[in-house]
């Protein structure tokens, strides 16, 4: 999926370091300084222990597909030219689950349990993390 | 678990607006039409109503919808709110109404929901509005709209439990058969399992006939203090149990894709009612997508885990089957318009309990279970309603 004309998510006070890291080609997660939990979605406090002491750490970028679908009817004009495209929930090696597209020429072959790796998609006003099937050289 | 709200409130009236494409009416008008019919059904006057609850509207997105609806209806209630937990709102509103009545804050609560989603929005606007349920920063920018999110639930559920597309199609077919017996249902042309499997694909494994309708529709019910049940023209339906469980909003944050909040909401409702799944005569289960009532039937103990698909495919969910489910046709075939979708499940349960459903009447109608669910399996509310107090 080429992303240049797709909507770029807004950055806010919870997520600014995440989007800044994506511009630098890094996938980062919040880690609770008190209990050590690595988390996604970004937020002000740890949803387990409620500590507000947080650090950002780089993820290794590897994960596996937990669930996947190929979308054949677009939700909006922006995605109309993209169908069919693949949406998946990916479990990172660090634990947290993310939602992503699976990109690359073989994206529709992605299945539950598929190893995937992060890649970065440039959009008009920023960069979004995406995932592709691991081990290929698909760009 | 105490008896809580058991026997503390009754449903004394129900009403449906005209349903389908109703271009000559606004969403508020559909609410008003349903409300008028519910009050007629209850034998009550507007001046008898001292509470009003509604949910939300995509087509008329007022900030204070409860107050707006009270104004539109000419009501000045002493208890009024907009309850927004997505599709779980209708059942949750009944719990809130019962709690307010039990606390002595009001005696007769009108619960309304409805939107003109079929004609009040263009198709693109409707789909775009629903895309807003996905997380604005971490789901929607990936083109993950509601059908795609439920498609991933289906994908994982099929993987874990062996549920099949044919079984999901059987849910849609059964709903259509029931809708064909309902005089006010939106879609009443027959469909087959092959029709569902061959319908236009939306997000694998879901096709368009696995997805709920987009209707113009409003529903209304009156929940009242049991004292008010005495002089009504029709028998009351007793609230025996209610339970909620809210585990997440966005699918990313769901604790699981194969275990959801219906387990706990059901446990709480059964405990309050002093009943168990074996005492349920029929069920009205939220069916925004064909996979959902399969999961709910399992989580609510109406069948074993992994057996929900077979329950529908085997014909057991038919109105004359072992466990009738969605006897009005559900949101897949009767109507779906925001929170009205789940409210029609309550309305159908009340009518079945009264025994007034003629050609689709279930044979055993003492205890009904209604489940509504909002978001992406996020917010759950289970009701147990009885023909008699328990």
Which CATH architecture of the largest domain in chain A? Beta Barrel
Radius of gyration of chain A: 15 Å
Per DSSP E runs of 2 or more residues, the count of β-strands of chain A stands at 8
Share in helix of chain A: under 10%
User: What is the CATH top level name of the largest domain in chain A?
Assistant: Mainly Beta
Overall shape of chain A: globular
How confident is the prediction overall: mean pLDDT of chain A?
93
- Give the CA-CA distance, first to last residue of chain B: 15 Å
Structural class of chain A: mainly beta
Question: Number of helical runs of chain A?
Answer: 2
Give unreliable regions of chain B as ranges.
Answer: none
- How much of the polypeptide of chain B forms β-strand, as a percent range? 15-25%
Assembly context of the chains: heterodimer
Distance between the termini of chain A: 10 Å
Beta content of chain A:
35-45%
**Lateral strand order in the biggest sheet of chain B:** 3-2-4-7-1-8-11-10-9
| The CATH topology of the largest domain in chain B | Peroxisomal Thiolase, Chain A, domain 1
Describe the structure.
The complex is a heterodimer of chains A (about 140) and B (about 400). Chain A is built from 2 helices and 8 strands. Chain A is mainly β and about 140 residues long. Chain A has 2 domains: about 10-60, no CATH class; about 60-140, OB fold (Dihydrolipoamide Acetyltransferase, E2P). In chain A, a hairpin with a 5-residue loop joins β1 and β2. The longest helix of chain A has 8 residues, at about 15-25. Chain A is globular and about 45 Å long. Chain A starts with 15 loop residues before the first helix and ends in a 6-residue tail after the last strand. The model of chain A has no long low-confidence stretch (mean pLDDT about 95). Chain B is an alpha/beta fold. In chain B, about 35% of the residues lie in helices and about 15% in strands. Chain B contains 12 helices and 11 strands. In chain B, the strands form 2 sheets. In chain B, strands 3-2-4-7-1-8-11-10-9 form a 9-stranded mixed sheet, with helices on both faces. Chain B is globular. The relative contact order of chain B is 0.20. The model of chain B has no long low-confidence stretch (mean pLDDT about 95). Classes of the chains: A mainly beta (about 140), B alpha/beta (about 400). The interface of A and B includes residues 8, 74 and 82 of A.
């Amino acid at each position: 999926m080429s992303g240049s004309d797709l909507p770029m998510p807004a950055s806010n006070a919870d997520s600014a370091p995440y989007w800044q890291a994506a511009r630098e080609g890094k996938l980062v997660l919040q880690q609770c300084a008190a209990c050590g939990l690595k988390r996604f979605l970004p937020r002000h406090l740890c949803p387990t222990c409620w500590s507000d002491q947080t650090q950002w750490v780089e993820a290794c970028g590897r994960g596996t597909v937990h669930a996947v679908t190929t979308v054949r009817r677009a939700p909006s004009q922006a995605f109309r030219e993209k169908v069919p495209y693949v949406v998946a929930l990916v479990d990172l090696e660090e634990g947290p689950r993310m939602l992503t597209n699976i990109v690359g020429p073989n994206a529709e072959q992605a299945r539950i349990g598929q190893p995937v790796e992060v890649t970065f998609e440039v959009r008009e006003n920023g960069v979004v993390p995406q995932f592709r099937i691991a081990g290929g050289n698909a760009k | 678990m105490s008896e809580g709200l058991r026997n503390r409130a009754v449903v004394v009236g129900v009403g449906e607006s005209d349903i389908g494409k109703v271009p000559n009416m606004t969403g508020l008008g559909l609410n008003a039409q349903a409300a008028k019919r519910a009050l007629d059904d209850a034998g009550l006057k507007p001046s008898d109503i001292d509470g009003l609850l509604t949910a939300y509207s995509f087509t008329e997105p007022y900030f204070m919808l409860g107050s707006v609806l009270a104004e539109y209806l000419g009501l000045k209630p002493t208890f009024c709110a907009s309850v927004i937990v997505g599709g779980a709102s209708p059942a949750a509103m009944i719990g809130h109404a019962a709690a307010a009545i039990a606390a002595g804050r009001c005696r007769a609560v009108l619960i309304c929901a409805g939107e003109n989603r079929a004609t009040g929005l263009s198709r693109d606007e409707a789909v775009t509005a629903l895309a807003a349920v996905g997380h604005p920063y971490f789901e929607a920018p990936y083109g993950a709209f509601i059908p795609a999110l439920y498609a991933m639930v289906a994908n994982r559920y099929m993987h874990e439990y062996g549920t099949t597309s044919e079984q999901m199609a059987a849910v849609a077919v059964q709903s259509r058969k029931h809708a064909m017996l309902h005089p006010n249902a939106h879609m009443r042309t027959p469909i087959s399992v092959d029709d569902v499997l061959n319908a236009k694909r939306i997000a694998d494994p879901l096709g368009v006939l696995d997805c709920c309708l987009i209707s113009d529709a409003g529903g209304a019910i009156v929940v009242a203090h049991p004292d008010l049940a005495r002089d009504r023209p029709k028998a009351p339906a007793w609230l025996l149990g209610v339970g909620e469980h809210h585990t997440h909003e966005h699918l990313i944050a769901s604790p699981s894709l194969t275990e959801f909040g219906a387990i706990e909401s059901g446990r709480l409702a059964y405990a309050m009612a002093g009943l168990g799944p074996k005492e349920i005569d029929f069920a009205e289960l939220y069916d925004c997508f064909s996979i959902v009532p399969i999961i709910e039937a399992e989580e609510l103990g109406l069948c074993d885990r992994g057996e929900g698909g077979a329950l529908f495919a085997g014909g057991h969910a038919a109105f004359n089957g072992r466990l009738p489910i969605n006897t009005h046709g559900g949101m897949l075939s009767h109507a779906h318009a925001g929170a009205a979708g789940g409210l029609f499940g309550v309305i159908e349960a009340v009518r079945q309990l009264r025994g007034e459903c003629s050609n689709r009447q279930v044979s055993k109608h003492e205890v009904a279970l209604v489940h509504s669910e909002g978001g992406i399996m996020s917010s759950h509310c289970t009701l147990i309603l009885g023909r008699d107090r328990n």
